[in-house]
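Our preliminary data section would be incomplete without showing what the modeling component actually yields. Below, a chain of 346 amino acids is followed by its predicted structure, encoded as tokens that our downstream tools consume directly.
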Amino acid sequence: MFDISAVNRHKEKDIQQIIDQKTKPPGALGQLENLAKQLALVLVLGNNKIIINHPTMLIFAGDHGIAEEDVSIAPPAVTQQMVLNFLNGGAAINCFCESNKMAIEVIDAGILLPVHDVRLIVQSLGTGTKNFSKQPAMEKTAVEKGLKLGADVVNKHVASACNVIGFGEMGIANSSSAAAIMAAVLKLPVADCVGRGTGIDDTKLEKKIKLIEQATQLHKKNLNSPLNILASVGGFEIVQMVGAMLAAAEKKCILLIDGFIATSAALLACQINQNTRDYMVFCHQSNEQGHQFMLEHLQAKPLLSLELRLGEGTGAALALPLLRAAAAFYNNMASFESAGVEPKIN
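Predicted structure:
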């Protein structure tokens, strides 16, 4: 379904030379140098400039059947309420996107309570998934449809010259789905994967762990491929995020990966096509337990560590200025030769 090529590593030596010849000691800009190299590998075409076009945040919203088990601090109705909040510009992600000049689009991937608003992209797979602690979250056909729908959103933006896409989400209890995905992919004990989400107490945390352990045993025979994992324990918004990530990599965009839930989608996207990893920028280290394990598995060093655990794409939006800074120094910083500066050679 997705034809994703690895980045052209033949250019890497030349790109590194450009970075090393800037008027600074080698490596003095730290992670920004690695970020500039990644951006150059993906986004530089014929003019040897990194061009960031129309960066856009996509927020996929979906509800989860496991929320009926009371594993979150909020009821499922809050998903609908927050979708309305996004549309009306009142959420943290709206503030961060506005301050960083980033467009935002909200997608109903399958929320329980409908929102009737022309500003919402409606491509619902249903009114929330099934309770995956008792039965599969969704049919395999819903996974296949969801991957395509997620790709459709990205392809529309790429057709308008967008080349940097952030991935956010909203869905009460979606950290349960993400933890189950993580446990299935990384083969880790469930207790290492489950965190407090939006801030549950010890009693709910223990219950959440037991339910996800129950689910991994129930679906054990089917946790053998990315699509089967999604059908067994996934979320409608996670499915569409996976499809969107794969499409963005296929179109050679930069993917801004947010926190715990978005990284669970990134895990599956990389399992479907490992070349997707080349296009991913991991934006922050979530305060949710387990995120570090996923980052380590993906060999990712996030740009920020701000103890965030909100989701919505907030960490990805906050990282966008760092991409602009990396592009600016790569494009505009003088070289030793052009500035007439003689580097000291030890």
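The beta strands are 56-62, 103-110, 121-122, 164-170, 254-257, 280-282. The radius of gyration is 20 Å. Preliminary results of this kind motivate Aim 1 of the renewal.
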